[in-house]
Write a structure and sequence with these properties.
Distance between the termini of chain B: 37 Å
CATH topology of chain A: Mago nashi protein
Structural class of chain B: alpha+beta
Strand content of chain A: 25-35%
InterPro entries (chain B): Nucleotide-bd_a/b_plait_sf, RBD_domain_sf, RNA-bd_8, RRM_dom, RRM_RBM8
Main location (chain B): cytoplasm
Strand order of the largest sheet of chain B: 4-5-3-8
Number of strands of chain B: 9
Number of strands of chain A: 6
Helix content of chain B: 10-25%
Number of domains of chain A: 1
Radius of gyration of chain A: 16 Å
Subcellular location (chain B): Cytoplasm; Nucleus
CATH superfamily of one domain in chain B: RRM (RNA recognition motif) domain
Strand order of the largest sheet of chain A: 4-3-2-1-5-6
Structural class of chain A: alpha+beta
Radius of gyration of chain B: 21 Å
CATH architecture of chain A: 2-Layer Sandwich
Oligomer: heterodimer
Protein name (chain B): RNA-binding protein 8A
Largest interface: A-B, 83 and 85 residues
Number of helices of chain A: 4
Shape of chain B: extended
Largest sheet of chain B: 4 strands, antiparallel
Shape of chain A: flat
Number of helices of chain B: 3
Keywords (chain B): Cytoplasm, mRNA processing, mRNA splicing, mRNA transport, Nonsense-mediated mRNA decay, Nucleus, RNA-binding, Translation regulation, Transport
Distance between the termini of chain A: 28 Å
Strand content of chain B: 15-25%
CATH superfamily of chain A: Mago nashi
CATH architecture of one domain in chain B: 2-Layer Sandwich
CATH topology of one domain in chain B: Alpha-Beta Plaits
Chain lengths: 158, 197
């Protein structure tokens, strides 16, 4: 239910999450990015030049329950234990960024777009990259931004 | 009840290069009006000055030159005083807020074998479920975690929260709460907590 603020979790540890995926192509810079702030503000920006030159920027406050669940998913994934040193670097195809603060740990990972599990398995760090891949695509981080659209186009149905 | 003021349009807003975001930690470098501004990370890297203990940092993101063309960190999300972003209802304090389409409820602690049907069975009791999203862990094919449920009316959502929070779904307790709020989470100041310890 409406529990205490997310700041109560883990002894009041701070939580912040930012995810970016994008590329620069013939249509310009197309990207999706969102950010959960410790106070619950969710900011979201989406630029897709494919349809027309539109830039969508939204913000909304999520409840403590949402922050708590986001934090749980991150902890569950154990992404904070990983390191992007051996992950593929961003390239012409695209770029992903994942920045998380959890308590006194702060990660800021960058890598290329990941097409499929084959890319994961053939990488130099298949174990770590798999964790990233599943976190983003399986836990649906790449869909969390949809919470930020006032229209609330639901994650399913897109 | 939270104000129902909301943006009714989904359309894009033009990029606003105002940079009055109080949380910005980086230098106030005004970007040239980029066609595709990104968010700027609002968390300082490598240990905020106020922290008792500096943060442990890890990742290429800290080593990249923030001015390099590949990074383009400046102002993707930044410039986000209210003017830069469409805000979804804000009348000050925290409290439920309505999205464009309805009232959205977050269900957590969902059993990994739950199906959408199970959720419809429970939440359909409180009103018509306009939308339902179940977060599925693709790795195992099982549900892990949460669902989002949307109702048309505040009263339906409120009743769903009140009556289903803390109940069981497939023998596992679920928590049910609002997904959105009209204001920031009340945060305890961690420094004060440490001083009190």
């Amino acid at each position: 239910g409406a529990g205490n603020g997310a700041g109560e979790e883990a002894g009041g540890a701070e939580f912040y999450l930012r995810y970016y995926v994008g590329h620069k192509g013939k249509f310009g810079h197309e990207f999706l990015e969102f950010e959960f702030r410790p106070d619950g503000k969710l900011r979201y920006a989406n630029n897709s030049n494919y349809k027309n030159d539109t830039m969508i920027r939204k913000e909304v406050f999520v409840s403590p329950s949402v922050l708590r669940e986001a934090r749980r998913i991150i902890q569950d994934s154990e992404i904070m234990k990983e390191d992007d040193s051996n992950w593929p670097e961003p390239d012409r195809v695209g770029r992903q960024e994942l920045e998380i603060v959890m308590g006194n740990e702060h990660i800021s990972f960058t890598t290329s777009k990941i097409g499929s599990l084959v890319d994961v398995q053939t990488s130099k760090d298949p174990e770590g990259l798999r964790i990233f891949y599943y976190l983003v695509q399986s836990r649906g981080i790449d869909a969390w931004y949809k919470l930020g659209r006032p229209f609330m186009a639901f994650p399913m149905g897109d | 009840m939270a104000a129902a003021a909301m943006n009714t349009d989904v359309e894009a807003v033009d990029f606003d290069s105002d940079d009055d975001d109080l949380m910005d930690e980086e230098g106030a470098i005004e970007p040239s009006p980029a066609p595709a501004p990104r968010l700027r990370s609002t968390i300082a890297g490598g240990g905020g000055g106020d922290d008792d203990a500096p943060r442990k940092t890890k990742g290429r993101g800290f080593r990249e030159d923030p001015n390099s063309s590949s990074a383009h960190r400046d102002s993707r999300l930044a410039g986000a005083g209210r003017s830069g972003f469409d805000a979804l209802a804000s009348d000050g304090g925290p409290g439920p807020v309505r999205s464009i389409e309805g009232w959205i409820v977050l269900v957590t602690g969902v059993h990994e074998e739950a199906q959408e049907e199970d959720l419809h069975n429970i939440f359909g009791d409180y009103g018509q479920v306009k939308n339902l999203h179940l977060n599925l862990d693709r790795r195992t094919g099982f549900v892990k975690g949460y669902a989002l449920i949307e109702y048309e009316n505040f009263e339906q959502a409120k009743r769903a929260i009140r009556e289903s929070d803390g109940t069981e779904l497939l023998s596992q307790i679920i928590s049910v709460d609002w997904a959105f709020s009209s204001g920031p989470v009340k945060q305890r100041n961690t420094r004060k907590r440490k001083l009190q310890a």
